[in-house]
Automatic annotation (TrEMBL):
Regions of compositional bias (Polar residues) in chain numbering: 164-176
Region described as Disordered: spans on this chain: 1-20, 37-60, 116-180
Keyword Cytoplasm: no
Biased composition (Acidic residues): 1-14
UniProt feature, compositional bias: Low complexity: 121-132
Protein's name according to its UniProt entry: WD repeat domain 25
Keywords, ordered alphabetically: WD repeat
WD repeats: 220-255
Domain of life of the source: Eukaryota
PANTHER family reported for this sequence: TRANSDUCIN/WD40 REPEAT-LIKE SUPERFAMILY PROTEIN, WD REPEAT-CONTAINING PROTEIN 25
Secretion signal, residue range per the UniProt entry: none
Keyword Metal-binding in record: no
SMART domains membership: WD40
Length: 522
């Protein structure tokens, strides 16, 4: 089929010719085909003068009648109604751009107009008028389109009909689940704030001597990774709450004394949580993680009040006993950082020639603290324990422990002027908390195994019972004065990492292990 491409940039006098003249001229030149790349001007690869003459011959340019409109739009002319003869600009009159829908229902097929089709179209122009065209296309459009499409208005459908009975029931169930969740959260908040019935009788009495737990009270399951540490709440009225930090990136709070229910799960870190402890008020906790972050979280709301970036993996955290807004962080770095929670900035730096800090322990008064490191020389454990001045950041002593063992855990005696260190030599050593921090060589607690695990030790509230875990999974209890092992609990199958003795209830303790289990004994 022969094709015709219109030159839109032509200024020929043929633009004023009528439709019949154009069709005759197209009839005479139907054997000539002019092609030009889209977008090229006449002065480029196809030069032509103002009269529309190209190198192929004289081809008129038609743009004011039906032929030019069809050529420019590349649509078929078959089946289209004719327009009045000599009418100019019909497409702008009958199909303006601002109308919601065009009057001509034009097919989207791409076609090229031929001279025969142009003659057929122009011959029909004298037999029909604009009103007939509009009426015909209105009737055809109403047949093809639905009523709401032709009118431009969609029928209203109610929300109940759109959702249907299944969606409505689903909404009801979701509302019920939300209400149950809110009720459960309210109950958890009440349990966090109320005093446990088992603890009430011991609050008014004078604290008695610590006892030794003998049997299992309950198991607390829910962690999916090793539980690194556990702590009872230091507030006596809230001492039924147990805090646990695990390698599964979560910190949990349990009602460990009465119901054994998990009251709160706090996914406050992106990596394993290595250490955590309560704040003195018992409403918040401090946690450190392998994601380089240390955070202070509200127990009731779960909101992170403070979060700082240490730029190293955090192994241990400690609160300043004289200033509740300051806490220390140590880990895979030769620097220990002191942070002010009010401004979230590091206020002090304690630097030493070490690789990592394993534990931090503040001495009484908060003016000095001890750090345990992994620095071991060939003959002695130089810089294994370092004493620091908190205010001046000066090292007071690094010749405290002279044996070739690292110390993964430290514990302060509640009444005496000494502290204890858990060593990888499978024993616990006693040191003076006064300068020059000498070790008591006559007192040593042996019988358990550490074997490279981060096994920690702890003293009872009155300082008479010393408890520690073991890599064998047992929990061991020692008499502090005689250094004799009093009792051994076969607590876990995996290594037992910590034994936490209850601050109020006698003969009550909690244990955690490398397998993710937490158990309560009494």
């Amino acid at each position: 089929m022969e094709s015709l491409v219109d030159y839109e940039d032509s200024d020929s006098d043929c633009e004023s010719s009528n439709t019949l003249g154009c069709s005759r001229q197209l009839k005479q030149n139907q054997d000539m085909t002019v092609s030009r790349p889209l977008g090229l001007k006449p002065t480029e690869s196809h030069p032509e003068n103002i009269h529309g003459t190209s190198r192929h011959g004289r081809i008129p340019s038609v743009r004011t009648d039906l032929g030019s409109a069809l050529v420019k739009s590349h649509i078929s002319t078959e089946g289209l109604p004719a327009l009045p003869e000599g009418h100019i600009g019909w497409e702008r009159q009958y199909t303006p751009s601002y109308m919601d829908k065009p009057l001509l229902n034009i097919s989207s097929r791409v076609a090229i107009a031929s001279p025969d089709s142009l003659e057929k179209t122009t011959s029909q122009q004298t037999s029909s008028g604009p009103s007939q065209i509009i009426n015909q296309h209105k009737s055809s459009d109403t047949v093809k389109r639905p009523q709401h499409v032709s009118s431009g208005i969609r029928p209203y459908i109610s929300k109940r009909q759109r959702l249907g009975p299944t969606s409505a029931s689903g909404d009801m169930s979701s509302k019920q689940s939300v209400e149950e969740a809110s009720t459960k959260q309210t109950r958890c908040v009440l349990r966090l704030s109320e005093v446990c019935e088992r603890v009430k009788p011991y609050l008014l009495e004078k604290p008695g001597a610590a006892g030794i737990p003998r049997r299992l009270l309950r198991g607390l399951e829910g962690h999916e990774g090793p539980v690194n540490t556990i702590h009872w709440c230091p507030v006596a009225q809230l001492s039924h709450l147990l805090l646990s930090a695990s390698m599964d990136k979560k910190v949990k709070v349990w009602d460990a004394v009465e119901s054994g229910q998990c009251l709160g799960v706090y996914p406050c870190h992106a990596e394993a949580v290595r250490d955590a402890c309560w704040t003195p008020c018992g409403r918040r906790f401090l946690s450190g993680s392998f994601d380089n972050k240390a955070a202070i979280t509200d127990v009731e709301t779960g909101q992170q009040l403070v979060k700082v970036d240490n730029q190293f993996k955090v192994m241990c955290v400690a609160l300043q006993p004289c200033d509740e807004h300051v806490f220390l962080c140590g880990g895979y770095s030769p620097v220990v950082k002191a942070w002010d929670a009010r401004v979230s900035k590091a206020v002090k730096l304690y630097s030493a020639s070490i690789q990592q800090t394993l534990a931090i322990l503040f001495l009484k008064g908060g003016r000095e603290f001890i750090t345990s490191t992994d620095s071991v020389s060939r003959d002695s454990a130089e810089r294994t324990l370092i004493a620091w001045d908190y205010q001046t950041t000066a090292r007071l002593s690094n010749q405290i422990f002279h044996e070739r063992y690292t110390c993964p855990g430290l514990a302060l005696h509640p009444t005496g002027d000494c502290f204890l260190a858990q060593t990888n030599g499978n024993y616990m050593a006693v040191f003076s908390s006064q300068r020059p921090y000498r070790m008591n060589k006559r007192r040593r607690y042996e019988g358990h195994k550490v074997e490279g695990y981060a096994v920690q030790c702890e003293l009872s509230a009155d300082g008479t019972v010393l408890a520690t875990g073991s890599s064998s999974g047992s929990a061991h209890f020692y008499d502090y004065q005689s250094t004799r092992m009093v009792h051994t609990l076969c607590a876990h199958r995996q290594p037992c990492l910590r034994v936490a003795q209850h601050p109020v209830l006698p003969s009550t303790a909690a244990t955690c292990d490398w397998g993710g289990e937490v158990k309560v004994w009494h």
